[in-house]
Amino acid sequence: MVAPSPGGKNQSSGQTWYHPVTLLLLVLVLIQWALISFLLTTTRQGHGLMQAADSLQVQQQQIALAMTHEIEATESTQGTSSWKNNGNNATVSYKGVVATVIFKAPKWFHLRYTLMLHNALANMPLDWHLQIFVNVPWARDNLWSWHPGLKRLVKDNPTRVTLIPLPDRLVTHSMKPKMVVFDEWFWQSMLADNVLLISGNGAFCGNHMYASNASSSMSDDTIWSRLPSFDYMGAPSLQHYGQGGDASVLSFRNRNAMLQVLQYAKQTDIEMAQQGPDFFLTQMLHMNDKGLANFRVASREDTEHFAGTRNLVNETGVIRVPLVVAGTQEKLSWEERDSLLKHCPELRMIFPSMHEPACFGAHPKPEVCKATICALQDHLPGHGC
């Protein structure tokens, strides 16, 4: 037997033969190489997943930012009654617009904005458009974070809702919200001549029904089709012998008529900052008396059909529910308010106390209800109710 040489080669046979220790080292090297390869592959995959996650997060942030910019930077269409859809070149005309101004408001008030706008969309005809004039700096800091539903409403209804930023000169610290409607730009920015102005102090009644007389009623279409026959109409009021009505909360206006009044005010040097909610009605009646115009101002009966809250059921049992209700109706009797809330439950959104089950139902609990009403507390909060 010939012993192997120190180099591990059998010199007599010419074949290479390795010592067991050398083989063990080779196996360990192969295992180490395989382990390192596995770790490197896993690290690359993990790094790829992290990059994918980071990329997804960035994309989500970009989408959110783009949506915010889309809402906040919507450009207004001025001096036209048509709106051009961003998705095509077709020009869409509307029979009318429901418009509101989001200027500034305490939190207890602006929390109803999303519900208010859903209420408008649910009741206005499909050939009407919803225009929201927004104080963008205030909305950015105080509104959007509280209203993800409002963002969705705008984004999901591009053919029914348009946001228009108010110009800087209308949102200065010294500017009051009422001054927006006294600016010609506001009316020139409307997308139609027929304008129904709304606010958070009113609501559309889903059960609205036009009753033309004691024995008949007209369809929903009749209510909306009658609106363009007026230049001005508000809620029932005792001022001006009931003509025109109160427009401080909800009102129907003709855009061209409003511009005509503002141009007359400019020509006669009327100081707009001192004017109140009835400025337009007062000027329209004055211009009619002077033969300067022929404005179509609603009668007392017309205002009752539009926003009247008394005598909802007549002697024959016919229900007359108004299109809109303005204010909390504090002058109604308990019976009248109860009837109004039954036929126009949307009004509950400006009656927060009705959200407490103890305040209504078959077995109301007066003391429990009282404890839930802010205005009835012994110590009223400084920010109001």
What does this molecule look like?
A 6-stranded mixed β-sheet has the order 5-4-3-6-11-10. A two-stranded antiparallel sheet has the order 1-2. With 385 residues, the chain is an alpha/beta fold. 38% of the residues lie in helices and 14% in strands. Helix 8 packs across helix 9. The model is unreliable at 1-18, 48-68, 70-90 and 213-218 (pLDDT under 50).
How do the helices and strands line up, and which of them pair or pack?
Blueprint: H1 20-72, E1 82-84, E2 91-93, E3 96-102, H2 107-110, H3 113-123, E4 128-134, H4 136-142, H5 148-156, E5 161-165, H6 184-188, E6 194-197, E7 202-204, E8 210-213, E9 216-218, H7 220-226, E10 232-235, E11 246-254, H8 255-267, H9 279-289, H10 300-307, E12 324-326, H11 334-343, H12 366-372
Parallel strand pairs: 3-4, 3-6, 4-5
Antiparallel strand pairs: 1-2, 6-11, 7-12, 8-9, 10-11
Helix pairs in contact: 8-9
